[in-house]
Specification:
CATH architecture of one domain: 2-Layer Sandwich
Helix content: 40-55%
Largest sheet: 9 strands, mixed
Organism: Pandion haliaetus (Osprey)
Mean pLDDT: 79
Pfam families: Mab-21_C, MID51-like_C
Low-confidence stretches: 1-14, 66-71, 73-117
Membrane topology: Single-pass membrane protein
InterPro entries: Mab-21_HhH/H2TH-like (IPR046906), MAB21L/cGLR (IPR024810), MID49/MID51 (IPR045909), MID51-like_C (IPR049097)
CATH topology of one domain: Beta Polymerase, domain 2
Subcellular location: Mitochondrion outer membrane
CATH class of one domain: Alpha Beta
Structural class: alpha+beta
Number of strands: 11
Shape: globular
């Protein structure tokens, strides 16, 4: 009796569940449509089978029954997976476009054409590789090749213009001042020597002044009024035996000394007032203007393809010294500046030729950086060259592979010299190449380079 009651209750529960499912299936067609109702029916049938098996008594110990149950479960699972998915509704990109009408059945004489579904185009796979970090060595070489290489055509044109102007000046001086023994003018510039020209925009014209060694002698810089060993004075000697007028340069004497100021002023007047620069410029296809306000003897040349600044320096060579008529600023006259440029270029090239070194390349990079940096531009030229020459005496490995190491070592050496405020000349240790720098300038340079020691790439960024 109890067993019957339990079976009855079970049948009632099954009947109740079946009624719910039947009601759901009956209304599914109205809600989901034909396709949706079919999907729900198949899924419901599979679930109902699973429920029936779960509630029906199991035949313990009957392997055939267990195998049949397992197979039915696989079939139900396959039935669920094989259930067709309802088609997605078409999305209208443009509200003005009408919805697609259902396809009409073909006419009896019209054959059905097979529809070929083209596969969607494959999206090309782009491989993204992480950015490669360049070493300091690679950055220096890239900086050298991309920013410091002067175009050959531009350099050639600049040098051609400078040589033409040099020849015009030479002819003018021979005609205007035949009594003054000037030697042949020649060019001097990093553009010619390959030691740090950022552009073909500046050239020096050297005007040699020939002195009779029997009538002139050099006074060391320590004995001059400025007490600076880099400046010399040229004294007229033996005036008792060889009075004024014996030397053609006596007209430029001030207090028994050959005055660089007087010589520069005379040449400046000639450049500004006596030379027909418009005619020379038209002959060379350019416009030439002497710079009137400058204390230097300077010309500005404008061509269609290049703009050039030319500075004229009277130069005296005596007793193995090269002296320029470039006196310091101020009221001091008659002083001549000792130039080491020729010796610097010669020594750097000699060392590089001896060990196939990269001193010239390192110097070119440093010159380019300092010339374009607002707080380091006064370090370009001789100071950098002398630091490299000092360092060459201590570090023998200047191969191109060691360029980054030597570059960073030069920065460290520069910071050390700036801390002391003294950079001795390689050719004369009595000369301090920092003597004309202000204390504020030295502090700013030292701070900039101190930061660059830990991060040299800061100096390679665009200014």
């Amino acid at each position: 009796m109890a067993e019957f009651t339990g079976q009855r209750g079970k049948r009632q529960e099954d009947g109740g569940l079946g009624s719910v499912l039947d009601l759901l299936l009956a209304n599914a067609r109205l809600v989901l449509g034909v396709t949706g109702a079919a999907v729900l029916a198949i899924a419901t049938l599979a679930v109902k089978r699973l429920i029936d098996r779960a509630t029906s008594p199991r035949d313990e110990g009957d392997p055939k029954a267990e195998q049949k149950t397992l197979e039915e479960s696989w079939q139900d699972l396959a039935l669920i997976k094989a259930t067709p998915k309802p088609p997605k509704k078409q999305r209208r990109e443009d509200l003005s476009e009408p919805l697609l009408s259902p396809a009409l059945p073909p006419s009896p004489g019209e054959a059905l054409e097979p529809r070929v579904c083209s596969a969607p185009p494959e999206t090309p796979q782009v491989e993204f590789s992480p950015p490669r970090c360049l070493t300091l060595q690679e950055k220096l070489l890239s900086h050298y090749s991309s920013r410091l290489a002067v175009p050959e055509a531009q350099a050639s044109l600049a040098l051609q213009l400078a040589r033409s102007i040099c020849a015009q000046l030479q002819n003018f001086l021979q005609i205007k001042c035949p009594e003054l023994p000037f030697s042949s003018l020649f060019l001097s510039s990093p553009l010619l020597d390959g030691l740090g020209a950022l552009a073909a925009d500046h050239v020096h014209l050297m005007l040699p002044v020939i002195l009779d060694a029997a009538l002139w002698s050099l006074i060391p810089g320590e004995d001059t009024v400025v007490r600076n060993p880099q400046y010399w004075m040229i004294k007229r000697t033996d005036l008792e035996y060889f009075p004024r007028g014996r030397s053609p340069w006596d007209r430029f004497i001030v207090g028994r000394y050959l005055s660089s100021n007087v010589l520069n002023e005379t040449l400046h007047k000639m450049l500004v007032a006596s030379i027909n620069w418009p005619a020379i410029g038209s002959l060379l296809g350019s416009v030439i203007h002497p710079v009137v306000a400058s204390q230097e003897l300077k010309l500005e040349v404008k061509h269609d393809q290049v703009e050039l600044s030319i500075t004229l320096f009277p130069v005296v060579e005596m007793e193995d010294k090269v002296l320029l008529a470039a006196p310091p600023e101020g009221l001091v006259e008659n002083l001549w500046l000792e130039s080491f440029y020729r010796a610097e270029v010669s020594k750097v090239k000699e060392l590089d030729a001896g060990d196939a070194g990269a001193r010239q390349r390192c110097l070119c990079i440093l010159n380019g950086i300092c010339k374009s940096h607002p707080s380091l531009h006064k370090l370009s030229g001789s100071p950098l060259t002398h630091v490299i020459l000092h360092l060459s005496a201590a570090s023998s490995d200047w191969a191109e592979e060691s360029l980054a190491d030597r570059f960073q070592q030069v920065l460290e050496e520069l910071v050390g010299y700036l801390e002391k405020g003294i950079l001795p000349s390689y050719f004369n240790h009595k000369i301090n190449l920092f003597c004309e720098l202000l204390e504020e300038e030295i502090d700013e340079m030292g701070f900039t380079l101190y930061r660059a020691i830990s991060e040299p790439e800061l100096l390679l960024k665009e200014k």
